[in-house]
Amino acid sequence: MKKLFLMGRSEAGKTSLTQILHGEELHYHKTQYTNTDTDIIDSPGEYSETKRCGLGLACFSFEADVLALLIAADEPFSVFEANCQCFTNRPLIGIITKIDSPYANVPMVRNWMLNSGCERIFEVSSFTREGIQALIDYLKDDPIKLTLEEAKERQRQGIPEWRDPAEWKREMAALHRA
User: Fold this and answer.
1) Rounded to whole angstroms, how far apart are CA atoms 35 and 57?
2) Where exactly are the structural domains of the chain?
3) Do 43 and 78 touch, CB atoms closer than 8 A?
4) pLDDT digits (tens, 9 = 90+) for 84-111
5) What does the pLDDT look like over 105-144, one tens digit per residue?
6) Do 40 and 18 meet the contact criterion of CB atoms below 8 Å apart?
7) Three-point CA angle 109, 135, 144, nearest 5°
8) 4-143 domain in CATH 3.30.70.1400?
9) Is pTM, for the whole model, over 0.85?
């Protein structure tokens, strides 16, 4: 199973999502420090909200197989900048939480995540469990294991280590044709 690193504002739903992914009942718990569980790293929202703590997010990202930006569907703004995927060498996914909120604006949040560089976006509700299984299925796959030589060759070609080289080349060719 891939190790997941969750980043997002306070009350975005990181801890609730962690509880659901672990099969626990939902209960309020304010994350005071970065929890590095066996398969999920849950960070305090203040790390995403404060520039001085942002470096901590970058450091913890190297302990994970997949990074996830969490933004609640009812957020009025995003704390993540455009193209923020460039600070890491891990896959970056987006998780839109609270999709069941009466104030949800999923298309707007989806655009924020696409602008931030998320390769894949999951829409979930920790209360109704909608979308949770798709996220679990994604995380079930083992991370790609490469030899040093394979990693160097992919780096030389500009191919992210977690992407299929043939698929990556097709996508890049399609972008250049457009």
Assistant:
1) 12
2) 4-143, 146-178
3) no
4) 766 677 888 999 999 999 999 999 999 9
5) 999 999 999 998 888 999 999 889 999 999 999 999 877 7
6) yes
7) 110
8) no
9) no
